[in-house]
Inverse folding.
């Protein structure tokens, strides 16, 4: 990345060119600069994403034909566990928050850095250590964990595979996530530029703020729950062991008290990025600013109260089932508020379909499918039919990949010129988007149909010829999707090394990030800006709000 | 919020400002959020405790009779006293009495260690009687008692880990207070060019003159000044004691968790 340094006009050197106490790689891994830390997260996440994706493709190859034996059953169990653990804990949970959040949160509120820069670097180290520990569970002990990413007891305390190490890795990553959340909350409270009132903050910041609260409030519960499983395996205290009076359902409650809010940790920052992109490429101020800001907070609140909908068939009481079902329907409201506001922003805007906008629009489409299929599962009677089928997997990937993944790609295309000062090829980016979009739907839409027809999730293989054609179609989709991903990655690598110099404001954005040089100087602003208007005021021909 | 001092050439005027970022409120806010996460960490365990006690009230009652109320009470007194010395240590540091603060902090550490020693004897006595997770003795117990002792070991164990962390943290603070608080500011100024007698002036943020140099010769074209700031009695700033305050908050949290653990395990008979 240091290659991306470009000699600029007589202005301060960019954060990429800045020479501190250390140079080379040490200048990165010892850097307290939020921008460098953000880029380090970005690189790490991209690598983990590619690893997780290749595991996913292997699973698709196994399911391509009925009675296929490409991999051993035990290997298949390890594959879906690792695919889940890597994608969830190393890619979508840090997602846009750790990478783009670190890079742009201080810039968007007019600050020089986050509140606790050292803690910020420590979070990155904890993340990397946790990732290494989690990945080491692959090669040490009695083979990789085979429990699925949910680590359900009692199987996770009985299996001989290397669960303890996997859990320890996730625990450390959780700690990293808590510290990042703590840092962001304090930064938003304390470091906003003069004049930047709460309702003048860009909506990406609001989304990060809501996310940070979930990270801080929900992650400790996961920490203690996973720690209890570790203690159970090492010492046999009996808290989750039915033979000693422990209650496995209690584990499920504790696990989902974190892990349901966690899906909002994953999706909220992506929604925030989409909210930045849509006004810029519609050249129009956002519609319903306060509604979007408050819907982020409402999602954070309501999303913390719906965990029971993962357990409709686990033996919960009917009262609990009905309550959680109702709350699940309620959480759809703030999400829908966002979708309607984005759509209303487009109305009468001057829409430009550049690559980031294509990703943003496809985010709305795919997320809507993901959200609506979620409501189907929230309905009690329907869920009995759908529970533990491929439908759930399809829904989850529409939300997490179609939502967070496409949001991530959108943010990357939107902010890449700002972060690295280089332009990528717009033609290749659009082509890659087209391939990705087609590949994504070919891969995951069959899951929804297969699940509806009764194909269970996490099954090693199947014998019904009825499923064969859809499973084959889905596997072909995975090849298309991978082609798109590789094309996109290649486009970015080429841009980072050989791309043309990017302008300071290539898209005509109006938020603070577009008012500073690309790439930004070390301290972001020569002078701390004084904010006098709303974040999306100032598009040409638009009256201030 | 920020602490700035200006170094000025007397003519023509040229500023070099060095800014160090100190955000007292921000530090406290961050610490309080961290404490919330700690409470939720233990909150998960208290939830588990509540569920199992509701399921097995009689077994919990019987098992709790095996715990030694005397040692528990002594340990409660020890931790409460340590919170007092911790608070006093902060109060004395705020007044600039560093020596007293260090001694009170050492007392706090000692009390923490005594607590851990008591805990060690309590645990070993239990283990000696064959009451530990997965022991042959314990597997004969009713399920509720197995869960009670499982939770006893996990919850007091996790609390013990926090006491150890606190002792380590406070030991670091002893060193920090003894050596510091002390800020070092380094200023540099470039020469404005040859014209008349030039002097360096150091002013505080309000423009009040703190120090002026001798006249500087024409051949010198850059100057750097190192300023050591040492707080003394009556000159304590919030950033000089915020770290100790935050450690104190952590120590009180560890204390208050014990205040809940004590009745829930020792006094429910």
């Amino acid at each position: 990345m240091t290659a991306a340094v470009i000699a600029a006009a007589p202005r301060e050197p960019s954060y990429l060119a800045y020479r501190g106490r250390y140079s080379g790689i040490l200048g990165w891994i010892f850097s307290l600069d939020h921008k460098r830390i953000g880029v380090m997260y970005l690189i790490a996440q991209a690598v983990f994403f590619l690893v997780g994706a290749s595991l996913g493709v292997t699973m698709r190859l196994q399911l391509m034909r009925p009675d296929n034996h490409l991999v051993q059953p035990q290997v298949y169990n390890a594959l879906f566990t690792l695919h889940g653990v890597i994608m969830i804990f190393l890619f979508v949970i840090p997602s846009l928050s750790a990478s783009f959040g670190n890079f742009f949160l201080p810039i968007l509120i007019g600050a020089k850095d986050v509140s606790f820069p050292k803690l910020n670097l420590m979070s990155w180290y904890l993340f990397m250590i946790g990732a290494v520990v989690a990945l080491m569970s692959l090669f040490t002990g009695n083979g990789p964990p085979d429990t699925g990413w949910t680590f359900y007891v009692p199987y996770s305390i009985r299996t001989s595979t290397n669960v303890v190490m996997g859990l320890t890795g996730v625990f450390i990553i959780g700690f990293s996530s808590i510290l990042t959340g703590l840092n962001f909350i304090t930064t938003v409270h304390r470091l906003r530029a003069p004049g930047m009132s709460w309702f003048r903050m860009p909506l990406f910041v609001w989304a990060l703020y809501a996310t940070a609260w979930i990270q801080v409030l929900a992650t400790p519960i996961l920490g203690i729950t996973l720690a209890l499983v570790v203690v159970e395996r090492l010492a046999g205290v009996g808290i989750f062991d039915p033979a000693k009076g422990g209650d496995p359902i209690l584990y499920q409650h504790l696990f989902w008290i974190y892990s349901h809010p966690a899906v909002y940790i994953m999706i909220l920052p992506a929604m925030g990025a989409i909210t930045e992109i849509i006004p810029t490429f519609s050249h129009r101020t956002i519609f319903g600013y306060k509604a979007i800001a408050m819907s982020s907070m409402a999602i954070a609140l309501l999303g913390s109260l719906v965990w029971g909908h993962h357990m409709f068939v686990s033996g919960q009481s009917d009262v609990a089932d009905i309550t959680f079902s109702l709350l699940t329907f309620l959480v759809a409201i703030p999400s829908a508020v966002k979708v309607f506001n984005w759509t209303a922003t487009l109305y009468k805007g001057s829409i430009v379909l550049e690559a980031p906008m294509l990703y943003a629009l496809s985010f709305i489409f795919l997320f809507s499918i993901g959200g609506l299929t979620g409501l189907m599962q929230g309905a009690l009677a329907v869920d009995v039919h759908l529970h533990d089928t491929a439908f759930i997997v399809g829904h989850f990937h529409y939300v997490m990949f179609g939502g967070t993944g496409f949001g991530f790609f959108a943010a990357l295309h939107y902010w890449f010129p700002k972060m690295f000062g280089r332009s990528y090829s717009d033609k290749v980016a659009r082509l890659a988007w087209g391939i990705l979009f087609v590949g994504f739907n070919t891969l995951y839409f069959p899951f929804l149909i297969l699940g509806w027809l009764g194909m269970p999730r996490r099954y090693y293989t199947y014998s019904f010829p009825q499923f064969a054609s859809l499973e084959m179609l889905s596997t072909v989709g995975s090849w298309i999707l991978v082609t798109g991903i590789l094309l996109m990655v290649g486009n970015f690598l080429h841009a980072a090394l050989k791309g043309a110099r990017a302008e300071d404001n290539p898209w005509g954005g109006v938020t603070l990030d577009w008012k500073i040089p690309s790439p930004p100087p070390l301290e972001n602003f020569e002078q701390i800006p004084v904010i006098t208007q709303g974040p999306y005021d100032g598009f040409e021909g638009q009256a201030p709000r | 919020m920020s602490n700035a001092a200006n170094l000025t050439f007397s003519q023509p005027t040229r500023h070099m400002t060095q800014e160090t970022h100190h955000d007292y409120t921000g530090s406290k806010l961050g610490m309080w959020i961290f404490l919330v996460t700690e409470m939720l960490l233990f909150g998960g365990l208290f939830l588990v405790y509540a569920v199992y006690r509701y399921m097995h009230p009689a077994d919990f009652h019987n098992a709790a009779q095996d715990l030694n109320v005397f040692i528990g009470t002594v340990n409660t007194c020890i931790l409460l006293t340590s919170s007092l010395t911790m608070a006093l240590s902060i109060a004395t540091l705020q007044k600039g009495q560093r020596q007293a603060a260090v001694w009170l902090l050492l007392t706090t550490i000692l009390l923490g260690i005594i607590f851990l020693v008591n805990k060690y004897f309590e645990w070993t006595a239990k283990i000696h009687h064959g009451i530990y997770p997965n022991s042959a003795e314990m597997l004969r117990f009713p399920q509720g008692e197995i869960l009670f002792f499982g939770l006893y070991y996990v919850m007091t164990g996790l609390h013990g880990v926090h006491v150890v962390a606190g002792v380590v943290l406070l030991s670091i603070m002893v060193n920090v207070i003894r050596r510091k608080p002390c800020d070092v500011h380094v200023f540099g100024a470039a020469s404005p060019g040859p014209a008349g007698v030039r002097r360096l002036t150091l002013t505080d943020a309000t423009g009040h003159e703190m120090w002026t140099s001798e006249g500087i010769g024409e051949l010198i074209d850059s100057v750097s000044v190192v300023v050591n700031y040492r707080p003394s009695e009556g000159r304590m700033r919030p950033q000089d004691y915020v770290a100790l305050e935050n450690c104190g908050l952590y120590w009180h949290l560890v204390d208050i968790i014990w205040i809940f653990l004590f009745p829930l395990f020792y006094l429910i008979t």
Summary: Residues 446 and 470 of chain A are 6 Å apart (CA to CA).
